[in-house]
Amino acid sequence: METSPARPPYRLDPSGGCPHAVNARLLAGGAVAPVELPGGIAGMAVLGHEALKEFLQHPEVAKNARHFTDLREGRIPAGWPLLTFATVQGMTTADGEDHRRLRSLAGRAFTPRRVEELRPRIEELTSALLDDLARAAAAGDGVADLRRHFALPLPMGVVCELLGVDVEFRDRLHHLSNRVVATDSEPAEAIAANRELVAILAEIAAAKAAAPADDLTSALIAARDEGGDRLGDQELIGTLLLMIIAGHETTLNLITNAVRALCAHRDQLDLVRAGKASWADVAEETLRWDAPVSYFPFRYPVRDLTVGGTLIPAGTPVLAGYSAAGRDPGAHGPDADRFDVTRPARPDAVRHLSLGHGAHYCLGAPLARLEAGIALERLFTRFPDLELAAADADLAPHAGFVGNSVRTLPVRPTPGGSRGA
């Protein structure tokens, strides 16, 4: 296969920003783009839908950081902001049998039956948080931050209840996980956040080991695979870290982005209310159109690979460009940048890749979809005239280039009948 001519690397902004204009420019030059990661580290981003689908399931693409050439050869400093993504011991950095073992042990909590059993608790928590949102608005001249009062505490509450994490830890865990996934952290800050997060998780795990309870952390400590192996200490901490981060950050962004999209596209909200689309359709279109994760680290070719007409050298850290693939005109048509909750599914049934594809497909996808569907339906039922309290263009983007959302989402949660008054 012919390879595309080399093009200069695009320097990813560590402080983040809305990715869509950048994605469109990069995609115009090809499905795979060279990028410069923080610290001047050379990487690649796979942006096109078909190229990303191929790359995510390629048998010669690994997740284990031993394949990361710059790390192996000592060119990555201790405080590099993406180091945790590369080195945490868990499902996202394991390959082959190790990956299957870890996924099997953790996956017992995410069977369809176990997820469905969470529905009543999610509905109960959603109702309570809607009350909190209303109270926050009443105390704030009718305006409240939906992200802080609703979109964050819902998935954080659910995943912490699953893991058996006490309420006292939750705010700190969110703050620390937010710093761990940020790409603009100073080295000392990144090291300190990672150490404190690991220490808290170790404290939680030790308490569960001493006094097991009916929660996932206790189950992970007790679980053995078919060969009789338990999770190692570092694997347990890594699994807890990944579940807390992935278990709330992605759903937080999904709910935030969906509400923002519906408020900016009232015609699409009207289609849902008219029964022409479902809340599940809203969640799927949001995942495609404004993916909660923009560029996810890392995968490494174990040999030189040509993907989408571009050569990716072995050992290169590669980002999965989910936000770009979701708006790829080659896959989603010339109106790929239009938010359309009635958009038909693709013939190959892969509507989007925003929750991954292949062996590393998001283990918590059913739970994220359930939480988002309940949250959106209950929110717009309780507050049918909910509207943004700031111009969409004035909303500050999420810090960093991994997560994709806004830092706050100020809304007016009026109970109905007053929009435009």
Automatic annotation (TrEMBL):
GO terms for molecular function: heme binding; iron ion binding; monooxygenase activity; oxidoreductase activity, acting on paired donors, with incorporation or reduction of molecular oxygen. Keywords: Heme, Iron, Metal-binding, Monooxygenase, Oxidoreductase. CDD domains: CYP107-like. It comes from the Bacteria. The keyword Ligase does not apply. Belongs to the cytochrome P450 family. This is Cytochrome. It comes from Streptomyces yokosukanensis.
